[in-house]
Amino acid sequence: MTPQLLGGARRWGVRASLLLVNLCHRYVDETDYEYSEFAIYDLGQAVAHLTIHAESMGLSVRQFRSSDRDAVTSELTVAPGWEVATMAAIGVPPEALRHTPLNFRTAVPCRGNDGR
Description:
alpha+beta, NADH Oxidase, three-stranded antiparallel β-sheet, Nitroreductase-like, Nitroreductase domain-containing protein
């Protein structure tokens, strides 16, 4: 899959332990629907849960879209109705990042429409 990576993904994607292609069942046969409007949402939830589980195992996940999706579709012979949406690089984070505390931004309370 590494030849299909584009842009910045070429710099770090080749070092990932695993490149995962995230597919969604976008067009469903035998329905009156033009497409499944929830397919991308469902895939996003699945990747989010994968990310949480991987992090609990000491792995790092980076979801990205900078790939040649047509070439990936062709190389994997993706079935009709399915669509390559994104990819995810999964692996052990570089040593420099393993023991670095996460730098979360300070939470700022949301304001309502009335400014309070």
